[in-house]
Specification:
The chain is mainly α and 184 residues long. Helix content is 81%, strand content 0%.
Length: 184
Amino acid sequence: MLTSTPTKEKKKNSSANKQNRSNVAGTLKRNPKYELKKDELIQLLGRFEAELQAKDIALAALKSEKVKTLLSNARFGRLSCQTDPYAALLRDSELVKEDVLNEQIPMKNAYETQLVQLEELIIQQRKQVHALKFALDDAQQKYALLVQELENEKKEKVRLQAFQNQLLITQEEKFQLRNEVIIS
């Protein structure tokens, strides 16, 4: 260890100092192994853009899922204005006339379209109820006519049965009288 000469140590120290200086000044110098070619930069830029698009798609999917859950909660009455902070923020933003949340406008539009669809469904159902009432009244009238016809046929059948019974009785009396006349 004592075999090294002072000049060698100075050279080692000076080369270490140069390396430290290059590390300190490394921000000014570029390392040749990190320099990328134009094709590689374009490919890297394409990958970054793809990642950004994927993140945008994921954010849009999350937003639509949130709107869907809020709409389903509101539809089934699980959305409570007192306990839901999102609903409280919407209520407060309407009072102050500020758009606190960016999702407020699409949610209002979704509620409005849902309301329009429900109103159209109500109108359609009312038309259907009216048509069904008309059909039911018509069927009841036909039923009443059929019952009346059946009653008339029943009375006619009873009258014919009575007439046949009377006819049979008279024929039997006729035969008895004939037999009496023949016997006497």
